[in-house]
Design brief:
Blueprint: E1 2-7, H1 11-22, E2 27-34, H2 37-51, E3 56-59, H3 65-75, E4 79-82, H4 89-99, E5 103-105, H5 120-123, H6 126-132, E6 135-138, H7 146-158, E7 161-171, H8 185-192, E8 196-200, E9 203-207, E10 213-218, E11 222-229, H9 233-240, E12 246-252, H10 255-266, E13 275-277, E14 280-282, H11 284-291, E15 305-316, E16 319-330, H12 331-338, H13 342-359, E17 367-370, H14 376-385, E18 390-394
Parallel strand pairs: 1-2, 1-4, 2-3, 4-5, 5-6, 6-17, 7-12
Antiparallel strand pairs: 7-15, 8-9, 8-12, 10-11, 11-12, 13-14, 15-16, 16-18
Bound molecules: NADP nicotinamide-adenine-dinucleotide phosphate.
């Protein structure tokens, strides 16, 4: 019997609200809050049609801590699920602390004016959450999220020592637009246009953006060129996976996408600093976001699959071992079930599974946690039941 407050009514927020609505035993009262009420109304209507359940909605500006605290004090939810943008992580963590409500998110904090993401800002809440007896679960999406749990599962069951991890993220689907991003364009483009970074032999190594790449044969999709990026789960996995010698993250991109990205970058459209335009200051990447298709609108025409997993090498019982732990998700199936594409689905389902772990007391400790610090078994059981079956392929 739990009341949950979901903040953010975008592509991921929609999936989270639908999946909570499907699980009547755990989520007995669902409140969806976002900056723009009309987006909540649209999701509320779809949930009534598809899941046969009425959720409650309200407007909130999550940048305003006082406003969120007032909402939390009025509603007294058992958990706040943050699926707004990474910029809202710290104000929402502050609000949860002030109101005594546990917290969960899917992406780590980024300051709006610097394209830089790292856990230091959120890890700094550790003592305050511990003292308040509250839990904060960080990065409960797919990557970060399920990928961290795959590593924890490998550490617990499949290996005595893990030497290398390559996280491999493939979207083998097609949305029919010449150029679009699958989640918030501003956050997505900031991530891709940064220098690449990976960890090897105890130190971080940098590459130019998308400089290092290789072809990988993804189950359910086939061979795709995969490009090295820096991704936030590397930072926590380096600390929490014992004996690790190297960890990298790769994502696939098609040539058409890369050509658009290069042109946009060359002409300054991915800049995050304000520029003067007809007497106004505008941030080019925010203007670009306004022109690009809304990620939550892509689902209707999306076909194909995502295939995301962890390629892990190490030793078990004195012998070398190599496995790929992965999930395949079909865009069109996601649309039928919850009116979303697979990128939002593979993020929203793990957020709801993480919430279920916390609300059922299976994951319940005071403090700030990354996913791999908790028992992977109940999470992975629930994940498979809730729409994301996973597999281990011995290589
Ligand atoms: N871990 C993973 O695997 C993974 C993968 C993909 C995405 N993500 C994360 O998931 C989150 C959501 O992504 P998305 O694609 O759903 O983004 P999105 O479609 O842009 O939706 C973001 C939502 O947050 C709302 N919002 C923004 N600022 C707000 C504020 N100050 N107060 C209240 N609501 C606010 C937006 O409201 P408006 O409608 O008013 O703009 C919008 O409804 C992001 O943090 C993203 O980084 C994680």
């Amino acid at each position: 019997m739990s009341k949950v407050l979901i903040v953010g009514a975008g592509g991921v927020g929609g999936v989270v609200a639908h999946k909570c609505a499907q699980n009547r035993e755990v989520f007995t009262d669902i409140l969806l809050a976002s900056r723009t009420l009309s987006r909540c109304e649209k999701i509320q209507k779809e949930i009534e049609e598809l899941q046969g359940r009425k959720i409650r909605i309200t407007q909130v500006d999550a940048d305003d801590v006082k406003q969120t605290v007032a909402l939390l004090q009025k509603e007294k939810p058992a958990l706040l699920i943050n699926v707004a943008l990474p910029y809202q992580d710290l104000p929402l963590m502050d609000a949860c602390l002030a109101a005594g409500v546990p917290y969960l998110d899917t992406a780590n904090y980024e300051p709006p004016d610097v394209a830089k993401f790292e856990y230091s800002w959120q890890w700094a809440y550790q003592e305050r959450y511990q003292k308040a007896g509250l839990m904060a679960l960080l990065g409960s999406g797919f990557d970060p999220g399920v990928t961290n749990v795959f590593c924890a599962y490998a550490q617990k069951h499949l290996f005595d020592e893990i030497h290398t991890v390559d996280i491999l993220d493939c979207n083998g689907g097609s949305h029919g637009h010449p150029f679009a991003t699958n989640f918030n364009p501003e956050i997505n483009l900031r991530e891709i246009t940064q220098n690449g970074r990976y960890w090897e032999d105890g130190e971080w190594k940098e590459t130019k953006p998308l400089e290092q790449h290789f072809p990988f044969d993804y189950p359910g999709v086939g061979e795709r060129e995969s490009y090295l990026l820096y991704h936030e789960e590397l930072e926590s996995l380096v600390k929490n996976i014992r004996g690790l010698k190297r960890i990298r993250f790769y994502m696939t991109f098609g040539q058409e996408y890369l050509t658009h990205l290069r042109v946009l970058g060359n002409i300054g459209m991915t800049r995050i600093d304000p520029v003067e335009f007809q007497g106004h200051k505008i941030v080019p990447i925010q203007f670009l976001k306004a022109l690009l298709p809304d990620p939550s609108s892509l689902g209707a025409t999306y076909t194909g699959k995502t295939s995301i997993g962890c390629l892990i090498e190490g030793v078990k019982n004195g012998k070398p071992r190599k496995v790929f732990i992965y999930n395949i998700c079909d865009h069109a199936e996601c649309w039928k079930e919850v009116r979303s594409q697979a990128i939002s689905y593979t993020t929203g389902v793990p957020a709801v599974v993480g919430a279920t772990m916390m609300l059922q007391g299976l994951w319940k400790k005071p403090g700030v946690f990354n996913m791999e610090q908790l028992d992977p078994d109940p999470f992975l059981d629930e994940l498979a039941k809730r729409g994301l079956p996973w597999h281990v392929k011995e290589l």
